[in-house]
Amino acid sequence: MRKREHFVTISEAGRILGVSPSSLRNWEQLGLLTPIRSQGRYRLFSREVLNQARQIRFLRRVKHLNPHGILHVLENSKGTTLPRSKTTRGKETIGGRLLRLRQQEGLTLTEAARKAGISPSYLSAIERNQANPSVATFQKLAQLYKTNVLSFFGDQEGGLRLVRPRDRKALEPHPGVRIEQLVLGRALMEAQLWYIAPGAGSGGSYHHEGEEFIYVLRGTLEIWLDEVERYSVEPGDCLYFESTHAHRWENKGKTETVLLWINTPPTF
User: Fold this and answer.
1) Is pTM beyond 0.70 here?
2) 2-11, 177-186, 204-213: which range is least confident on average?
3) What CA–CA distance (Å, rounded) separates 7 from 231?
């Protein structure tokens, strides 16, 4: 029988570590720690996170580094348990690619998070493959690193004029959303089939350069543009809009939604 993992609250973690809860919250804000959140949104600390906190405490008290100095040491330490760029099989992970892109841009975790409009702790969790980014977050990071979302999932395959169902590259940016590429290789137009489960959505608004066209094959989808225009699209409906409008979407129906979604230029 698998042993159940034990978690402690932030107050209990503070007593164990001999630090104040406010220090732990500060370390989380800086991306040094990523406690999980209970359904009531309380911070819970696992044994692994407590060990990371002990390492931070050592660097703080013994090495006399400030939090930003600690972050720099952890990000550049080969032996740290923080950002892992590759899996045990040597294949680079999504988090590893995002970490590499951030380092290539010469950005600290805090700088990149601020530019992308997300918290440092959330970005840290993404880079360590401990969080599933929403479509909106992927789009924001793609704009920040001057690339497209597809690059986060691996090298793009060579172009094919004829793409059969078995040839499609499928992406699952987060649970409930599946995207199948209908055009492979470098192109000025990006055509995709989107499968969106009930309750799944973009995870917030995002915008970028270009134009978008949506044709609904099955199900329904609610789409907001600039938080002003609301569209509820159904099978057979078409929707066109400029991508510079901040857009978010959600499947509020009870069945899966299937869309033909075309972007130009490609953003995924």
Assistant:
1) no
2) 2-11
3) 43
Nearest Cα neighbor of 163 from 185, 196, 179, 148 is 185
DSSP 133-175: --HHHHHHHHHHTTS-GGGGGSPPPPP-SS--GGG--EEEEET
For residue 9 the two structure tokens come to 């609250």
Main-chain phi, psi angles of 188, to 5 degrees: -85, -10
> Which of the four pLDDT bands, split at 50, 70 and 90, describes residue 3?
very low
For the beta carbon of residue 68, count every other beta carbon within 10 angstroms.
12
Look-up of token digits 């510079």: 244
Rg of the Cα trace of the chain? 21
Condensed to tens digits (0 to 9), the pLDDT of residues 57-92 reads: 888 887 777 766 777 676 665 444 443 434 434 467
Q: Determine the topology of domain 153-264 in CATH.
A: Jelly Rolls (2.60.120)
Instruction: Decide yes or no: CATH 3.40.50.200 for domain 83-131.
Output: no
Q: Indicate the fold that domain 1-80 takes in CATH.
A: Multidrug-efflux Transporter Regulator; Chain: A; Domain 2 (1.10.1660)
**3-class DSSP assignment, residue 81:** coil
